[in-house]
Amino acid sequence: MVNYRKRKRESCADASRDRVVIHSCSHHSFITIKLKSFHTHVNKHTQMHSITTSPAFFKTAPSSSSFLSSFSGKRGGVSRRFRMESSTRVESSFSASSSSSSSSSSDYDMLQAMCEAVQLCAKLTSKTQKLLETSDQVSKSDDSPVTVADYAAQAVVSYVLEQKYPDVALLAEEDAKALRGGSKEAQGLLEKITEITNDCVFGDDVSEYLSREEVARLIDRGNHEGGSESTFFVLDPIDGTKGFINQRQYAIALGLCEKGKVVGGVLGCPNMPMTKIPEDVDALETEKPGVIFAAYENFGCKYAAMDAKEPLGKDSFIATSDQFVKCGKDGARYMESWGDSIVADHAFTNALSEKVGITRKALRIDSQAKYGSLSRGDAHIYLRFPPKTYREKVWDHAAGAIIVSESGGVISDAAGVPLEFGKGRFLDINGGIVASSTPELHEQLLKAIADLR
């Protein structure tokens, strides 16, 4: 096995440990950031909080546990929130070498490796999606470019993760069973997948390569069955196949589970704009280089440009869901899948939005990119109501779920039960999945769903 460490991107520089000063304000006030010599005037009633720029700085974002506990009613009310505009850049190094606990550094290192894997994979998928514009083969079957990209994307992510964390298992969507057959078609498909995988990982360096058997083995690393007793990565190499085919949104979704609980997630959205979604659109436009979201339990959520050199550091922004949104005129906005998706029930979502007083048009977005949009305040509600015969898979929600919760949002099934990721490769849900910007909004939606059903 070749050593990926020889080829990995240049690591984040250990930048100077600037101090970040956040001025937290009331509902009608504002927040500013002070970096180095830059400063702004603040309301005389504001309070000042100092935060060092180390891996522990992730903790400045809201904790998912505080929101879930307040929503469930088991504890007191929601703790005081500090709203941050999505344009706020945080000039922090997140350097693993800075003074912090060993666990924080370990968490950072793992999240950094996950970001590297997703960023590398995005190069492969973006190149393939561009080829689809002129290809006659656009279905996910046989040896189409979509099938080749799906397998190769999984092989690339599996390779990067194995080099860094060989003892951590992988639960992923694809397996190489169909590629191991002795037919000419199977051999040809595996050859294409191997070629594109090597091109992505090694580029023009022909001195290093993966064999067809090695690529098939990397794909089959995703056969882990999950459960509540082990630590494992969860991967959907191309989430949103129809969006990928039709030149819309798709996502590379990589989560990390420990004993049945999602504790980390990276969501790569290669076609998502970095800027806030306009108010008057009903579909998310595509824009390169895309966006990468990253979150870790109790550390918060960040996002950056897909090609950012330091997606957890100075190139990143804090992702915070809109904590002041209400239903009603010009208020909350919901997202759902396109009409060509099996999990889109437009009739029910229309009835639900009318019941809670939502007047804004729905925003159609493919894939787990919806979770990313909610996390940075582009929209406020994600509704997913598949047919009763449909079984949700863990890779379709693991990364997105922690992106939402660590940005201050709430996610559950339609009965209000938190998603369970420790029961194998499938999720047992009641009636659908609902994600919201705030606990209050979530509770309002769940009550309306119960009334309608």
Could you characterize what this model shows?
Helices cover 30% and strands 17% of the residues. By secondary structure, it is of the alpha+beta class. The chain has two domains: 102-318, Fructose-1,6-Bisphosphatase, Chain A, domain 1 (2-Layer Sandwich), CATH 3.30.540; 334-452, D-Maltodextrin-Binding Protein, domain 2. Strands 4-5-6-7-8-9-10 form a seven-stranded mixed beta sheet, sandwiched between helices. Helix 2 (102-132) runs antiparallel to helix 3, helix 2 crosses helix 4 (184-202) and helix 3 (145-164) packs across helix 5 (212-220). The protein is globular.
Q: What is the number of E strands?
A: 17
Compute the CA-based radius of gyration: 22 Å
- What is the CATH topology descriptor of the largest domain? Fructose-1,6-Bisphosphatase, Chain A, domain 1
* Number of helical regions: 10
Average pLDDT confidence is 79
Largest sheet: 7 strands, mixed
Strand percentage lies at 15-25%
CATH superfamily of the largest domain: Fructose-1,6-Bisphosphatase, subunit A, domain 1
Order of helix and strand elements from N to C terminus: EEEHHHEHHEHEEEEEEHEHEEHEEEH
Low-confidence spans: pLDDT under 50, at least 5 residues?
Answer: 1-100
What proportion of the residues is helical, as a percent range?
Answer: 25-40%
Structural class: alpha+beta
CATH level-two architecture of the largest domain:
2-Layer Sandwich
* Biggest β-sheet: strands ordered side by side in the sheet: 4-5-6-7-8-9-10
What's the short story on this structure?
By secondary structure, this protein is of the alpha+beta class. Helices cover 30% and strands 17% of the residues. It has helices at 64-72, 102-132, 145-164, 184-202, 212-220, 241-245, 346-356, 369-375, 398-406, 439-452, and strands spanning 19-24, 33-34, 47-52, 169-172, 231-239, 251-258, 261-269, 291-296, 300-305, 317-318, 334-336, 363-364, 381-384, 392-393, 410-413, 426-427, 433-436.
